[in-house]
């Protein structure tokens, strides 16, 4: 279906065409008319389906068609608020707002932690129609009374499942309490867990329901393969695969920040350019690594799950699970970085004896058995005994890591006092988005 049939203005269509898009994806075909109608929306969409344009384009249209109400004194009110779980995703979404809205008389800004707050305060003194923010830094501004949320007309919760997974539910509820009751709510989630359904029931008013792929489905455009290997030979095998097949742009996942650092250093010393990206890296280092990777001058980007949310690279050819995730659903998120918007991609998993149960959990989740291969010279020891996963967060007994509960056995981790906040937080102890460590990998 062409974008021209979806009820968007000529100026928005011009910006879309300039980005090289003419045909709407399935989520865009359904979401754009639903958002334009003014009603609430609950949308299930995997990463790479074009969901960002699915809400950005109609929001631009709606705000342009409806003049802003007279502004009170003080900080100008925000008209549309888009909440995202990570800095990278926030930056990506706001970039899309600017690209698609280049011919509209609307303003936008991105707000996240890890950078100075004063430049953000200066920007907020001017009119901001569309604010893209992470929950922790937004609440920092709320406490300092530098942002006005009392006139928000449209709220978007993007990747809501990941926000809940990262422990943002209390922050989200605090933000919701600051918004006007009459507003349009749009909730996007890759999965529909019971937690998501509970959030949707309390937030949405008779929403339209869109689900463009079956729950926890993997894209048909992604070729998936498992290489069986001993744990000690994983790095050598990865280097061999990259060199043998001349892979030029490879996103590699590890479970931990320390593991990401170590792997990137080892690959780099071996002549394969690599950098790590995770929550302990400064925002400038993360931005630099991502920019180098996007333009192709960096061959390998090693990432943890949370840091990789929001990485949107067109036609990314290769994703490698250097270590399988403890939570099976994260496998779907990981490999969703490739095979996006119809392009083909390859997802490779290096699996040692420790991870056989995790692999079974993933195969149960995606309802298919993954093809397995052994590379000559890297044959695994058939007598090797499995060892516990070395990050203290193994799967639930007998669960194969098949559910979100596998990530935090025995309930939630202890609450941590957020950095960068002074008193008056109402007892909220969820971590601020600009913390490094904690849940923020």
Structural account:
With 441 residues, this protein is of the alpha/beta class. It has 2 domains: 3-211, 3-Layer(aba) Sandwich (Rossmann fold), CATH 3.40.50.300; 222-404, 3-Layer(aba) Sandwich (Rossmann fold), CATH 3.40.50. Helices cover 34% and strands 14% of the residues. It contains 15 helices and 14 strands. The protein has helices at 10-18, 26-36, 51-65, 87-100, 118-124, 135-144, 160-165, 169-176, 194-203, 234-244, 257-269, 283-295, 305-308, 328-335, 356-366; strands at residues 41-44, 80-83, 108-111, 130-133, 154-157, 184-189, 208-211, 222-228, 250-253, 274-277, 300-303, 318-321, 345-351, 372-373. It has a 7-stranded parallel beta sheet, with helices on both faces. Strands 10-11-9-12-13-8-14 form a 7-stranded parallel beta sheet, with helices on both faces. It starts with 9 loop residues before the first helix and ends in a 68-residue tail after the last strand. 47% of the residues are buried. The model is unreliable at 392-441 (pLDDT under 50).
Per-chain topology:
Elements (H helix, E strand, L loop, with lengths): L9 H9 L7 H11 L4 E4 L6 H15 L14 E4 L3 H14 L7 E4 L6 H7 L5 E4 L1 H10 L9 E4 L2 H6 L3 H8 L7 E6 L4 H10 L4 E4 L10 E7 L5 H11 L5 E4 L3 H13 L4 E4 L5 H13 L4 E4 L1 H4 L9 E4 L6 H8 L9 E7 L4 H11 L5 E2 L68
């Amino acid at each position: 279906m062409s974008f021209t049939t979806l009820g968007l203005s000529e100026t928005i269509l011009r910006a879309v065409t300039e980005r090289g898009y003419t045909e709407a994806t399935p989520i865009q075909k359904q979401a754009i008319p639903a958002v334009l109608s003014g009603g609430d929306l609950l949308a299930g969409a995997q990463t790479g389906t074009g969901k960002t344009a699915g809400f950005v384009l109609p929001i631009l249209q709606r705000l342009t068609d409806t003049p802003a109400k007279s502004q009170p004194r003080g900080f100008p009110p925000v008209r549309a608020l888009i909440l995202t779980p990570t800095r990278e995703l926030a930056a990506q979404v706001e970039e899309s707002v600017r690209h698609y809205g280049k011919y509209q008389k609307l303003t936008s800004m991105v707000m996240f932690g890890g950078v100075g707050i004063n430049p953000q305060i200066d920007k907020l003194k001017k009119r901001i129609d569309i604010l893209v923010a992470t929950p922790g830094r937004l609440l920092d501004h709320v406490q300092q009374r530098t942002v006005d949320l009392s006139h928000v007309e449209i709220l978007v919760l993007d990747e809501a499942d990941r926000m809940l997974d990262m422990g943002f539910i209390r922050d989200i509820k605090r933000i919701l309490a600051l918004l006007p009751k009459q507003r349009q709510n749009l909730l996007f989630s890759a999965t529909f867990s019971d937690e998501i359904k509970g959030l949707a029931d309390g937030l949405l008013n008779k929403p339209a329901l869109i689900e463009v792929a079956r729950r926890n489905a993997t894209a048909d455009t992604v070729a998936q393969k498992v290489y069986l290997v001993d744990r000690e030979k994983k790095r050598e095998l990865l280097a061999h695969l990259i060199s043998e097949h001349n892979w030029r742009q490879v996103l590699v996942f590890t479970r931990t920040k320390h593991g990401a650092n170590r792997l990137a250093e080892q690959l780099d010393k071996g002549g394969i350019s690599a950098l790590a990206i995770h929550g302990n890296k400064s925002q400038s280092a993360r931005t630099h690594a991502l920019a180098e990777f996007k333009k192709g001058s960096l061959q390998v980007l090693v990432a943890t799950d949370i840091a990789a949310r929001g990485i949107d690279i067109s036609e990314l050819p290769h994703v490698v699970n250097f270590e399988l995730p403890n939570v099976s659903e994260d496998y779907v998120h990981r490999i969703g970085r490739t095979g996006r918007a119809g392009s083909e991609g390859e997802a490779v998993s290096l699996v040692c004896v420790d991870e056989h149960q995790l692999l079974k959990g993933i195969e149960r989740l995606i309802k298919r058995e993954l093809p397995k291969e052994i590379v000559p010279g890297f044959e695994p020891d058939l007598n090797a005994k499995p060892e516990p996963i070395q990050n203290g967060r193994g799967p639930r007994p007998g669960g194969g890591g098949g559910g979100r509960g596998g990530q935090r056995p025995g309930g939630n981790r202890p609450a941590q006092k957020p950095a960068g906040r002074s008193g008056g937080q109402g007892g909220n102890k969820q971590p601020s988005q600009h913390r490094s460590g904690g849940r923020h990998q």
